[in-house]
Structure formats: structure tokens, C-alpha cells
């Protein structure tokens, strides 16, 4: 059973959503501001649903502090049309966002999409080091360990979020191929690309910031306007 932390200052909404999510089979804890969330959060949560506009500590500052301690997936709940909050959330490592008001079915579908992705990368108790090493993926000095969602370059842990790792993994699996934003949105975020949706672009921007310069001195990625992204193949 997946364990969720729902953080929102709207007490009535929190109660309604908590009941809905419990009926869907999730275990749900709640908090009514960012400080409460930080006080109770630990490594046991599978996903955090985090509202932006809250008293005491808003969602953006909460996410910033959360990312200093945990890599748990985070979905931001944002006011419809508030592009600045969405961009800031994605820059700070949020995995996805959902504008309010939202449809209950869409919320559940988005949650399940994120959990499917992270569950696929969660190592089982029976996995050992040999199995993990055999599953690793290498590209131009970059080593990906899918079992623990870890990316290493020249001995440096890139400290990617789950979404950043999934995006890098799919690009490495298709070197030199143009992958459309629509395709990446479905494969990585589990949702169709909507007009003015910049989530994939922001995750790509975060990847570029975290990846050190390649030893062959060429760019990791190319952006093809109106077409998508590609991972530049080795020389």
C-alpha cells in the first residue's frame, strides 16, 4: 500500500481528498502547512502532494527544504494559470504539478503514474550487488543504476530526482534519436502534453544544470525547436 502525505491549508479539501485516496487503496497522512509537513515527513512516504499557497511555510519553500533531505516524488497543487509557481516548483525538483480545481479521477491517475514509475525502479529485498551491476546502463562515462535510480558521472553522484532520472534513462536508451515532447510527457510523466505545458522543458533544464561537461567536450543534449530533444551520440 502506497503511503501519501497530503499537504494543504484547506482543511475541508484535505479531508475530502484523504477519504477519496483511502478508498483508492492509499494510506494517507495529512498536514495543513509546510512546517507541519517537514516536521512529520520521513523516508517512508511514497509521494507528497504539496499545495503552493499555505500559511507558515508555503509550498515552494517547503519543497526547497524537502529536496535537501529526501528524493521522495512530489506533485505540486497549483492555482490554475499561475505559471511562475509551476516553473519554480519544477526548477526545485517537483516531479509534476496539477492545477486547481482538478478532477478527482485525474488526480488519482497522476498519482498512480508517478508511483508506477518509482515502483519499477525500487529494488527488491532479494536483489544483490551483482544483479544491480548487470542492470546498469553506461553512456559516455555516465552510469545509470535503475534499481536505485542513481546516475554517476566520473565518480560523482548527480543526485537526480526520480523524474530527472526517468527522463535521462529514456534519452540514453535512444541516443541520436529525436524524442518529441509529447512522447516524453507520456513516457516519463504518464500524461498527455497539454498546451503551454512546460514540465518536460523544465526537467530537461534541470538535467542540463546537473550534468557536468562531457569528457569529449560536446553537448549532452540538443533541442530541436518544435520537434523535441535528443541525446547527442558519441563521436
Short description:
The chain contains 9 helices and 11 strands. It is of the alpha/beta class and 235 residues long.
Task: Quickly list its features.
235 residues, Rossmann fold, Arc Repressor Mutant, subunit A, 5-stranded parallel beta sheet, 4-stranded antiparallel beta sheet, 20% strand, globular
Detailed description of the structure:
This is DNA-binding response regulator. Keywords: Cytoplasm, DNA-binding, Phosphoprotein, Transcription, Transcription regulation, Two-component regulatory system. One of its GO terms (molecular function) is transcription cis-regulatory region binding. Residues 134-233 form the OmpR/PhoB-type domain. 40% of the residues lie in helices and 20% in strands. By secondary structure, the chain is an alpha/beta fold. The chain folds into two domains: 3-120, Response regulator (Rossmann fold), CATH 3.40.50.2300; 129-231, Arc Repressor Mutant, subunit A (Orthogonal Bundle). The strands form three sheets. It has a five-stranded parallel β-sheet with strand order 2-1-3-4-5, sandwiched between helices. It is globular, with a radius of gyration of 18 Å. The N and C termini lie far apart (46 Å).
Q: What topology does this entry show?
A:
Layout: E1 3-7, H1 11-23, E2 27-31, H2 34-40, E3 47-51, H3 59-67, E4 74-79, H4 83-91, E5 96-100, H5 104-120, H6 129-135, E6 137-139, E7 142-145, E8 150-153, E9 156-157, H7 162-172, H8 181-189, H9 199-210, E10 221-224, E11 228-231
Parallel strand pairs: 1-2, 1-3, 3-4, 4-5
Antiparallel strand pairs: 6-7, 7-8, 8-9, 10-11
Helix pairs in contact: 2-3, 4-9, 7-8, 7-9
